[in-house]
Design goal:
Family: Belongs to the SIMIBI class G3E GTPase family. ZNG1 subfamily.
Catalytic activity: GTP + H2O = GDP + phosphate + H(+)
Helix content: 25-40%
Distance between the termini: 64 Å
Radius of gyration: 20 Å
InterPro entries: CobW-likC_sf, CobW-like_C, CobW/HypB/UreG_nucleotide-bd, P-loop_NTPase, Zinc-reg_GTPase_activator
Keywords: Chaperone, Hydrolase, Nucleotide-binding
Strand order of the largest sheet: 7-6-5-1-4-2-3-8
Number of strands: 13
Low-confidence stretches: 207-225
Structural class: alpha/beta
Order of helices and strands: EHEHEHEHEHHEHEHEEHEEEEH
Mean pLDDT: 82
Protein name: CobW family GTP-binding protein
Strand content: 25-35%
């Protein structure tokens, strides 16, 4: 029996992981055991940690690059590891700059007897989708990839509809229909949809042992696109930030950034920090490891950003010692 597989696509910060969390919650209600492949641009696994905090699933992490830019060996290996565990179905959450068509081709070419590609789901950020062509005009490959995410989708979520005008939503629908005449379009807030309908017909087929086992992280090469860069900023264990001061510092980088995420100690408690679409959000977390922050943006100067970050952290440390 072939294992159903869902590919989750969409640009950075659109709401893919939020959708995945909802789907995992529904699988738990149904007694299903999913396998998850998560691909992150950065060296640190923010979204994978978030998934682990809220659900017990088999996760294979592909870090430090975009899987569709590799020789396909990493995805091949991750899938074979999950298939050995025989999950009821598999979610593949791609980076925001991946072409889902390439992943679907891998499934069709190398795993046609093992998996069945049920749907390619693309999540769009309603607040910013119309601006991407101009924002990323210098990176034609990225613009083509974002267009392809729409063209090959079976289901398109126009997410964050509450942050866009009715006129903008109408324009987005025109753009989508120009590129994809057949996909179902849903307008959502926090990626909320009727998840049960997506999983209809999938039933448990095996009782698994050690369902929460995680496989070894697999680093992959630098992606082929040239303008989107990722930097991981270390955070000294001794520092507990003041939230307003930290946000004020990070905002001077915002024009260059499309995404920030990480685990940061605020007033002696670790919180999950996320930046997308110009908005900063904080969520309580039980993350037990060393804090860090991942920044993703256009043509970032790594040395300059690290120098500025180090100086800021040192100033925070001095403030703590003197207070």
């Amino acid at each position: 029996m072939r294992i159903p597989t869902f590919i989750l696509s969409g640009f950075l910060g659109s709401g893919k992981t939020t959708l995945l969390l909802q789907m995992l919650e529904e699988t738990k209600k149904r007694g299903l055991q999913p396998g998850v492949i998560m691909n992150e641009l950065g060296r640190q696994d923010v979204d994978g940690q978030l998934i682990s905090e809220q659900s017990e699933v088999q996760i294979e992490r592909l870090l430090d690059g975009c899987v569709c830019c590799d020789k396909k060996a990493e995805l091949d290996g991750a899938l074979r590891l999950l298939l050995q565990r025989q999950p009821d179905f598999i979610f593949i959450e791609l980076t925001g700059v991946a072409n889902p068509e390439e992943i679907a081709d891998i499934l069709a070419e190398s795993f046609r007897n093992e998996v069945e590609n049920k749907r390619i789901i693309t999540v769009l950020d309603a607040e910013h989708t119309l601006d991407y062509n101009s924002i990323f005009a210098a990176d034609r490959q990225l613009v083509r990839t974002l267009r392809r995410q729409i063209e090959v989708a079976d289901l398109i979520l126009v997410n964050k509809k509450d942050l866009a005008s009715s006129q903008a939503l109408a324009k987005i629908e025109k753009v989508v229909r120009k590129q994809n005449e057949h996909a179902e379009i849903l307008y959502t807030v926090h990626s909320e949809i009727n998840v049960a309908s997506l999983l209809e017909g999938i039933t448990p087929h095996k009782n698994l042992t050690n369902p929460a086992e995680e496989f070894t992280n697999t680093p992959i090469p630098e992606p082929s696109y040239s303008h989107i860069k990722t930097i991981t900023l270390p955070i000294p264990e001794s520092i507990s930030f003041n939230k307003p001061e930290l946000e004020q510092f990070l905002r001077h980088w915002c024009p260059q950034l499309v995404r920030m995420k990480g685990y940061i100690r605020i007033d002696e408690k670790v919180e999950l920090f996320q930046f997308a679409g110009g908005r900063m959000n904080w969520t309580t977390s039980v993350y037990p490891g060393t804090p860090y922050l991942v920044v993703i943006g256009m043509q970032l100067d790594k040395n300059q950003m690290l120098a500025e970050w180090t100086a800021f952290c040192e100033s925070m440390n001095v403030t703590m010692k003197s207070s």
